[in-house]
Write a structure and sequence with these properties.
This protein is an alpha/beta fold. It is 21% helix and 18% strand. It has 9 helices and 14 strands. A 5-stranded parallel sheet has the order 2-1-3-6-9, sandwiched between helices. The longest helix is centred in the middle third of the chain and has 13 residues.
Amino acid sequence: MIDYIQIFGDRGSGTNYLASLIRKNFKRVAITSDFGGKHWFVKNHFPRSKPNTTTDNECVRPVTDSSDTLFLVIYKNPYAWLCSIHRRPIHGDGHWSLSFSEFIRKPWTSYTTKKLNPLWDENPEDYYFIEEARNILELRTQKIQHFNALAEIAENICFLNYESLTADVDILHQIATTYGIDLKRSQIVNDPYRANSGKKKRVGFVPTKYPEISAEGLAFIRENLNWEVEQSIGYNSGDYNFPAVPGAVSVSGKKGLIMAKSAMTSMNQNNPDSTGIDTPTGENDLELTLHVKGLDPIELVCGEAQPVVQTLFKSLLRNRDEIVYLQLGPDTPTAIYFPGSHLMSIESNPAVSPEFLERLLAD
């Protein structure tokens, strides 16, 4: 029986989002950190960066003693991940305020000047060491190899791609079924972020727009990242455009469930609870044409035959800084990412007001 879930994934990989989904949807399981902090190397488990007396001490149970625990490991597209870490290099004090070009080249040392956990050894020096690597690219490779190797000793382990999870949270249904975990309700709850007393509360997925990576930056990443390791978790050097899904993953030699399924294999397109469009003009169908910078016009027909699936593009008219995720009707489902700022215009037939479009396109 699974009583605990231990999440692993480097910073900026969606670990908080995954934890939120688990708390909202899984019954009688607790998220634990007995096997180590979710971002860090596991004590006495290799390959890894050099051992330490900080985060290693947080590992109070060995992975070999984990029959009651499901390990969930989550990975993110390397380009998006690098942009995320560059934006917030947590515990990488020497990496704040660097240009992206400097950031991806600088030797990586992760440390903090504060004792963040009582399990850490006292340090007479002025900092607490966590991890190091030749650069952030090497650190990513170390972490992937380290977490992948857990499959050799963990009894219950599942690997996910962040892009697959955000595209189709019903992956959690499959995990629950495979490992005998009860769900709180029949449908997976996936609420968006909501303001809470002036603060943003993390309760779901809201896409983030990342700045464009220069040609020089892309060349360095493509030449220096270990793409054989990346391919083992479903990513390739050509995945720069932050694709919706890296595709199905099959990692030979791994135990447990390897999850990275296409967003389109189980999109609930024919949900009987879905409804068509009730336009102000009384027409049954609403035709939308999106004119997006750098893309051919995107045509959508929303109606009884092609009901709105989840959200066509969340908060687009209110926040042009978000990357947009589209799910187009059941006959030709497609997932597209593009910066909201690249949307130039929306045409509708029959003509409807901007206010109606905003109501339609929001949750």
